[in-house]
Amino acid sequence: MSGPAVVCALVAAVLFAVLPVVPFTGAPALAAEKPTVTLSKSQAGTGGSITVTGSGWRSEALLMILICGQAEPSRGVPGGTDSCANADGRAVTADDKGDFSRKLPVAEPPVPCPCVVHVATITGEKAEAFAVFQVAGHSVEPLPQEATGGRLSVLTDTRLNGSSGLLTWFGAPPARELVFTVGNVGSSPVEDPVFQVGTSHGVFAPQWQEYQWNGTIQPGRKARITLPVELAAGAHGDYSVSLTYGGKVLAEQPWGVGRPWGVTLFWLMLCVVVPAALFRIGMAVVDRVRPTRTTPPRRGGRRLTELAFRLPLLGTSNGAHSRTTPSANASTTPTLPWFTPDTDPGATATGPVSAPQHPQEGHPATPTTPTTPTTETGQTTETGQTTETGQTTETSQTTETSQTIETSQTSRTRKGSA
């Protein structure tokens, strides 16, 4: 065999050995990069159901299946999830090989057809697929003209700027700024572009808000754009922020929101303070409403009190007391200067008077003469005044009167003898 023939044979052998290998290794790679969706029916009416089968998805990926209107596989869903029957959507998880099969109830989307069955990942890397579907009896309208000219593309990774303050710790709405850089990869300028920013939590659909950026991006130029992002009051957990322009998702950014522990602390304090305040108020009301208890005075004490109020009146109103008082005072005075010790009437009286005598004419009784019996009578009177019963008081007053009369008669007799 000549040299050229040997070379041709070797080249042919290499070609036959390589050609079968290229399709075998390239086909799985293509299948893994682009997931697919197939339907059991291409048309069904409201109330029926279809079976959606998928393959080529990421292993154990969480997917959402929706019927959307005003959409085509080539253009996607320009209106986003607002054009889909979200209430009748179904979630499914792919198996280890990336395949799934799920029944989907047929429902009319909020916008006219053409319609598609839209399957997209909920978490992780963004991936989606479409399958044409017709809802029987639902209206059909042509799609709006696709905007020509400039096209925007995100050139850098998006980020969220900002931090939570003290008010956010007590339940205020968390807020951030979504910062990204876009470039115009089209042939015409883009003026005042309108972006949609959506926030989603878990498996729930995003809630979209539109923001218009004022400015013009020339072809081949780029611009740095900042858009506000705000959640509901008290929001916490893992959120996802999505950015779309012209119906296409440009970027997604995760956002972890801390729990507002200040709200929990507030409720704990409220559970402690309110019962304590109610208890104090209740005790104050009970103290005002409850009748006061009065302890009745002792019987003996009340009688002594009444007697103490009566004694001054008895001393001032009775004439016997007024006559007795000077006699008591005189017993403590020394001998009068006009009497000598030998002629002192009090000194000559050595014994008690035998019997009372009537006063003579021209010699009136002198109740103020100091005598020993008068002093004793005054003492007896004081004893009678401290007695509890009124009967004893009257007896002492009678005794005092008789003793006073007796004393005055004795004084007159002694003066006559002198």
SSE run: HHEEEEEEEEEEHEEEEEEEEHHHHHH
Query: Shape from CA axes?
Result: elongated
Major β-sheet strand ordering: 2-8-7-4-5
**Cα end-to-end separation:** 203 Å
**Biggest sheet layout:** 5 strands, mixed
Under CATH, the topology of the largest domain can be stated as Immunoglobulin-like
Q: What Rg, in angstroms, do the CA atoms define?
A: 61 Å
Q: What structural class do you assign from the helix and strand content?
A: alpha+beta
Q: Report mean pLDDT, rounded to a whole number.
A: 74
CATH-defined superfamily of the largest domain: Neocarzinostatin-like
Q: Unreliable segments (pLDDT under 50, ≥5 consecutive)?
A: 14-32, 313-331, 348-355, 364-396
Tally of separate domains:
3
What is the helix tally? 9
Please give the CATH architecture of the largest domain: Sandwich
Strand tally is: 18
- CATH classification class of the largest domain: Mainly Beta
